[in-house]
Specification:
By secondary structure, the protein is mostly helical. It has 15 helices and four strands.
């Protein structure tokens, strides 16, 4: 894992080559890039190694390399952890915009969309920063969860160490070797100084900082907050509980700026969400280590004519009306009903007309003669 981020940019010119490689986890990413290249070549033998590695390290620089990766890779370096927190925020900040409150099981499901084997235990530890132990079934807002999750995931080893130091101070404060007063008759009252603080009151904040300070800076191989930010937290109160310490670290603007991947709380919900795609791969993505779907380019139009032949011009639209004539107006669309719905027209004069009898020429002549005879 990366060394503490308290290095300054000037230290890059003064530290040894081994420390420089360890500081930026260069060997970790070189090994992973080679493993991803070999895996990708099995699926696509025509892959260009130089292009693949260029895309890999561009994705590493942009922080998109942790999407759909296994948990062991995500937690391996401090850059991976911070990038994953930033990725989670980009993908699901719309939850905070809507004001939805989610349970820890639902937050674990969202994390599983980005990392299928993300452990539920880490989500429970995150919830204990926001909630007390007997209220873990309560709902949590997105803003509270994301800042607590950032601290728990990025400073996981540091928080485990501080919890051990806190428990040691708590036990020393209530040691069973404290004097016990047994009242006896005939003796004057003996006054012995007793510790009046309960375990719920926490420990002395200044003593707690002195216990933490040896583990700050470049002396450990895990990420730690800066000493100045912890002084700002612990020197502002006389006593502090471990729960209060975690809440103060999660809400510290200085610590959030030190990690440098999340905006402050006022701008946390601004911007559009990152669109997630299925992890099934259709082509080499911008991050070759990640198999997620991208839009394939359309096939360009090809010229089917023979080489050297001139393409035939397309026939222009012709006007079929005679010169000088005016184009007929188009017939407006009418609402044509089905034949079954049309009524048969009736003749209003049908009742007044006599019936029509069609006679042949022979019949007509006969009828005329009979009339003349009469």
């Amino acid at each position: 894992m990366a060394l503490s981020s308290s290095y300054s940019s000037d230290d890059n010119f003064s530290i040894s080559a081994e420390k420089y490689l360890a500081k930026y986890d260069v060997l970790v990413y070189l090994e992973d890039s080679m493993a991803q290249l070999l895996e990708h070549r099995e699926e696509n033998p025509k892959v260009v190694a130089s292009k693949f590695l260029c895309e890999y390290f561009c994705s590493l620089r942009d922080g998109n390399h942790t999407m759909f990766r296994e948990f062991n890779f995500i937690r391996k370096t401090a850059h991976n952890r911070a990038s994953f927190v930033h990725l989670f925020w980009k993908c699901f900040r719309h939850i905070g915009k809507k004001g939805d409150l989610l349970s820890i099981q639902e937050y674990h499901s969202l994390l599983g969309l980005l990392c299928p084997d993300f452990p539920f235990q880490l989500v429970q530890k995150t919830a204990r920063i926001v909630l007390i132990d007997d209220a873990l079934d309560c709902l949590i807002s997105f803003s509270d969860f994301i800042f607590a999750f950032q601290v728990q995931f990025y400073y996981e080893e540091f928080l485990e160490k501080t919890f051990e130091l806190y428990q040691a101070q708590l036990q020393a404060m209530h040691s069973p070797r404290d004097p016990v007063i047994v009242p006896t008759s005939g003796e004057s009252e003996v006054r012995v100084h007793q510790n009046q603080h309960l375990p719920s009151d926490g420990v002395d904040a200044a003593h707690f900082f002195r216990a933490i300070s040896p583990f700050l800076g470049n002396t450990v191989d895990f990420s730690t907050p800066s000493a100045s930010s912890l002084k700002e937290i612990l020197f502002s109160v006389s006593r502090i509980s471990f729960y209060g310490f975690l809440m103060a670290v999660a809400k510290s603007d200085a610590i959030n700026a030190q990690i440098g991947r999340l905006p402050d709380k006022a701008q946390l919900l601004e911007g559009a969400d990152l669109e997630l795609a299925s992890p099934t791969k259709t082509q080499a993505s911008a991050d070759p280590a990640v198999k997620y779907t991208e839009t394939l380019p359309t096939r360009p139009e090809t010229n089917l004519t023979k080489p050297g032949a001139q393409a035939l011009p397309t026939r222009p639209e012709t006007n079929l009306t005679k010169p000088g004539t005016q184009a007929l107006p188009t017939r407006p669309e009418t609402n044509i009903k089905p034949a079954a719905m049309l009524k048969k027209p009736t003749n209003p004069y049908k009742k007044n007309l006599p019936p029509v009898v069609l006679l042949s020429d022979t019949d007509s002549g006969t009828s005329t003669d009979s009339s003349d005879t009469n």
